[in-house]
């Protein structure tokens, strides 16, 4: 058996096992509003209906103490998760993050804020610093699987026939316009992690006018190019048979429901294996993440995604260009009117407030591929922050034990420059 065949079998096993995985004992099934309110904030639930009928669940963290310290409207900030994630990713890293008026009162002096104890959850620290935080969920994850006319189970093939492209060109502008309309602001800050950053690069390529609405755009671990990606997903990228099967059978992959299934994984002998399989699927590193929170993470991750995203990211591994999803000549003709998918022209981007945050240890969005992204842009990023740590991996941007100092504080310092814009 060749090495590539073995890797492919491992990937297939993980996909199959995702249908029967349960986590260990400390399962937290709190939803986003419950988590937000447990810290003393108010949660507003906002359901955005897209032009093609998808209903997106979005959640606003309201700090009831902010009006005492801010006379002007708060700067709106959208935080967007990555593939297999949801908005919970930015509020579950630590049990801390309670509403804190002292942080709010000292928002102008970030060095006086104890990020180590209070800044582990990006959503909560930004709300405590006086930002109007919106946690958003694109179509296909646990919080955004509703539609005005389609049922995700009964109308599965039609419902799930989408990928990153629809998230970028339909969901994202709908979210941006909704937040701006509700806040009365002309621009907002956008923080995108992984796929959440890729969809913004796609949007700004196709609709450059949205650059005026984004100030700044913070891209964490952007997977726009994945030619140097190093994980078992590369084996999937080489299997045309499996990718064609996924194309012909669109559906949900790795939904949050997989951790609800009791079945075989409730057996005390099998639990450790199930646990390890899910850790491998998500590439969670015990050494860098908070070991006491692993079961909390696995209660919310994975949160589901369209299976077509597997095709999309496989193509980013094997193809040199940043394009729409390639579904083959026949599908492409129906979808695009051409046998090949159109490209996203990154040189169309005119936004000059782009910040890139990445790591030397990220095996998904590698430094080489991030550099390729920078080279493709016509505008030079306002700043590029590199975490020089070979152990700081892709998920560490929200799960690392030291995420407060390495990620969240630098983000807060960037946002501080844009409070009045």
TrEMBL record:
Does the keyword section mention Glycoprotein?
A: yes
Q: Please tell me whether the keyword Glycoprotein is annotated for this protein.
A: yes
Q: Highest taxon of the source?
A: Eukaryota
Q: Write out the GO MF terms.
A: hydrolase activity, acting on ester bonds
Q: Which Pfam families match?
A: Abhydro_lipase, Abhydrolase_1
**GO BP term (any one):** lipid catabolic process
Q: Where is the AB hydrolase-1 domain?
A: 125-259
Q: Which residues form the Partial AB-hydrolase lipase domain?
A: 32-93
Against SUPFAM superfamilies, the record matches this protein to:
alpha/beta-Hydrolases
Q: Which UniProt keywords apply?
A: Glycoprotein, Hydrolase, Lipid degradation, Lipid metabolism, Signal
- Residues forming the catalytic site: 194, 362, 394
Q: Which positions make up the signal peptide? A: 1-20
Family label: Belongs to the AB hydrolase superfamily. Lipase family.
- The name under which this protein is listed is Lipase
Q: What is the lineage of its organism?
A: Eukaryota, Metazoa, Ecdysozoa, Arthropoda, Chelicerata
* Gene name in the database record: 107367780
